[in-house]
Amino acid sequence: GAPPYADAAVRRAMALAVDNEICLELGHAGRGTVAANDHVSPLHPAHADLGPAPYDPDQALADMRAAGLGDFEHTLVTVDDEWQRNTGDAVAALLSDAGLKVRRRLVPGAEFWDNWKSYPFSATQWNHRPLDIQVLQLAYRSKAVWNETGFSNAEFDRLLDEAMALADAETRRTRMERLQMILREEGVIIQPYWRALFNHHNGRLVGAEKHPANEIHLYKIGFAD
Question: Is the confidence at residue 106, as pLDDT, over 70?
Answer without folding.
Answer: yes
